[in-house]
Amino acid sequence: MRTLSLAALSKAGVIEIAGTGARLLPNPGLDRARVYGADEQAILSLAGAAEACAAIRTWDGYRPTPVHGLAAVARDSGVADVLYKDEGQRFTLKSFKAMGGAYAVERLVKARGTAGLTVTCATDGNHGRAVAWGARRLRVPAVIYVHETVSEGRAKAIEGFGAEVRRVPGNYDDAVRASAEAARANGWTIVSDTSWPGYDVIPRDVMQGYAVLALEAEAQAPMPSHIFVQGGVGGLAAGILSYHWEKRGETRPIIVVVEPAKADCLLQSAVAGRWTAVGGDLDTIMAGLACGEPSELAWALLSPGADAFISIPDERAAEAMRLMAGFGIAAGESGVAGLAGFLAVAADPAARAALKLDAAARVLCFGTEGATDPEIYRAIVGRAPEAVEGRAA
Question: Catalytic residue at 97?
Answer without folding.
Answer: yes
